[in-house]
Specification:
By secondary structure, this protein is α/β, with parallel strands linked by helices. The protein has 2 domains: about 5-240, Rossmann fold; about 245-370, N-(1-d-carboxylethyl)-l-norvaline Dehydrogenase, domain 2 (Orthogonal Bundle), CATH 1.10.1040.10. The protein has helices spanning about 10-15, 20-25, 50, 90-100, 135-145, 165-175, 180-190, 245-265, 275-280, 285-305, 305-320, 330-335, 335-355, 360-370; strands at about 5-10, 35-40, 60-65, 70-80, 80-85, 100-105, 150-155, 190-195, 195-200, 205, 210-215, 220-225, 235-240. The strands form 3 sheets. Strands 5-2-1-6-7-8 form a 6-stranded parallel β-sheet. A hairpin with a 2-residue loop joins strand 3 (about 60-65) and strand 4. Helix 4 (about 90-100) crosses helix 5, helix 8 (about 245-265) runs antiparallel to helix 10 (about 285-305) and helix 8 packs across helix 11. The longest helix is centred in the C-terminal third of the chain and has 24 residues, at about 245-265. The radius of gyration is 21 Å and the shape is globular. GO terms for molecular function: tagaturonate reductase activity. Its EC number is 1.1.1.58. Keywords: DNA integration, DNA-binding, NAD, Oxidoreductase. It comes from Rhizobium miluonense. InterPro entries: 6-PGluconate_DH-like_C_sf (IPR008927), 6PGD_dom2 (IPR013328), CB (IPR044068), Mannitol_DH_C (IPR013118), Mannitol_DH_N (IPR013131), NAD(P)-bd_dom_sf (IPR036291).
Length: about 375
């Protein structure tokens, strides 16, 4: 196989999303992969996760849920990953792999993954390991440009609007911080495609040391642009001219619903280990969520000409929330809660207000006001 993929982020999400898709593409006979998984920060000795990615037996992903009205419960042994690397401990090996073999880069570095630290993001020699993910990527790209200047496709999966554009700008800023020569930026513009993407799959539980439990539903939407291509063909991968409809539906219905439930969970003293399914078994909370969708969220979509799509997506979302096989802990959803309120709720209010929604969106405004 010749389409080497370097994946930044060891999250269970990517284990049950991009890496699983590549595995299934391999099983169908496609020449894609293998994947090298990179722990972006921290020491690999903190857990066995990095080393476990080198196990040739792969790792399990359990798919549980409803598909076409029928229960689905199956285990897939994912073997698309051939090694795990720590960026801090295996920098030289990573640099050589990135310069010589990479055809695709995939990333999912969390909600604050594009944060930079100018005072700690310096690089110059081959042994300098900058702190932030954008600076690490910039340093690796500079080494590739110097070594071969071969083209590259970068597929960021962070849930950030315009993620490809935002990541590219962060990389450029880090390169300028380090006084990289002008020719690098010409190469970056002409030969490195930073795609904009949207991902969607509920991955509810980890399996130790690696592996995950996930729902059947999955989406990887990739915006068409010069140089952009998908790493493989897969039913869950969609190339599209416009990501916004996919993004709005996921961000302002599924993710907004999660954040609404996390707000209730935090403020009303709910059980520490409560799941989405369990909190919605409380009839009062289920009614509050249904009312929120009906009276505040759907009018905002209707004002933007997406009423029918949103109504169907709400129904799908509620089915996913009530998946009898998944234990999706609200404690996990509530991580980085203020940032999620900004992206999922405040951004929806702005979008709906601009389109003159018929709803006053009082509940959503009250939540947003707590996190100014």
């Amino acid at each position: 196989m010749s389409s080497r993929i370097i994946q930044f982020g060891t999250s269970r999400f990517l284990q049950a999303h991009a890496a699983l898709f590549v595995h299934e593409a391999q099983q169908s006979g496609q020449d894609v992969g293998p994947i090298a998984v990179v722990q972006v920060s921290g020491a690999s000795s903190r857990s066995g996760r990095v080393a476990a990615f080198g196990n040739p037996q792969g790792y399990p992903v359990i798919i549980r849920g409803m598909s076409d009205g029928q229960p689905l419960n199956r285990t897939i042994q994912v073997t698309s990953v051939d090694r795990g690397l720590s960026a801090t401990e295996h920098w030289r090996e990573l640099s050589k792999l990135f310069a010589d073999e990479a055809e695709f880069v995939v990333s999912n570095t969390g909600d604050t993954g594009y944060q930079t630290w100018p005072e700690e993001d310096r690089f110059g020699s081959d042994d300098d390991v900058p702190r932030s993910f954008p600076a690490k990527l910039a340093a690796l790209l500079v080494q590739r440009w110097q070594a071969s200047a071969r083209p590259l496709v970068i597929l960021p999966c962070e849930l950030i609007t315009g993620n490809g554009h935002v990541l590219k700008q962060a990389v450029v800023d880090c390169a300028r911080l380090n006084n990289v020569a002008a020719g690098f930026y010409d190469w970056l513009d002409g030969h490195v495609a930073f795609a904009e993407t949207l991902v969607d799959r509920i991955v509810s539980e980890p399996i130790e040391p690696i592996g995950a439990v996930a729902e059947p539903y999955a989406l990887w939407a990739i915006k068409r642009a010069p140089g952009v291509r998908a790493p493989c063909q897969h039913p869950s991968i969609v190339l599209t001219d416009d990501l916004e409809p996919y993004e709005r539906l996921k961000l302002h219905i599924l993710n907004l619903g999660h954040t609404f439930l996390a707000e209730i969970w935090q403020r009303e003293g709910r059980p520490a280990d409560e799941t989405v399914r369990a909190i919605l078994a409380d009839k009062d909370i289920r009614t509050r969520l249904d009312t929120l969708y009906e009276s505040e969220v759907l009018p905002g979509f209707a004002a933007n000409g997406m009423g029918d799509e949103a109504k169907a997506y709400v129904a799908t979302t509620l089915d996913r929330f009530l998946n009898p096989f998944l234990d999706h802990r609200i404690a996990d959803i509530s991580q980085h809660h203020p940032e999620k309120v900004a992206r999922r709720i405040r951004a929806f209010l702005d979008w709906a207000d601009k389109a003159r929604s018929t709803s006053d969106m009082g509940t959503l405004r009250q939540i947003a006001a707590h996190y100014i």
